[in-house]
Amino acid sequence: MTISGRLRWWWDTAPCVTAKHGLIGLAKVVAKEGGAHSVRANVICPGFVRTPLVDKRIPEQAKELG
Q: What gap in Å lies between CA 53 and CA 35, rounded to an integer?
């Protein structure tokens, strides 16, 4: 069994996920390359943020989870 078979895919999440992963990767590279020069890098990744995208999913999840 693969995890992809258990996950429900929403096409409109790909840009958001890609952007978050890109920022985390950039921060890691900046920290690694800038460490010798006392450069630090941080990324603030908020948890749940109420947006139109989330508002659209609340009823769907409520129906699925009861």
A: 37
pLDDT value at 12 more than 50:
yes
Chain CA centroid to CA 52, Å: 16
Give residue-wise pLDDT tens across range 14-49: 777 788 889 899 999 999 999 999 999 998 877 777
Six-digit token string for 30: 């900046």
Burial of 18 by CB count in 10 Å (0-12 exposed, 13-18 middle, 19+ buried)? Answer: exposed
Of 15, 17, 36, 40, the closest CA to residue 28 belongs to 40
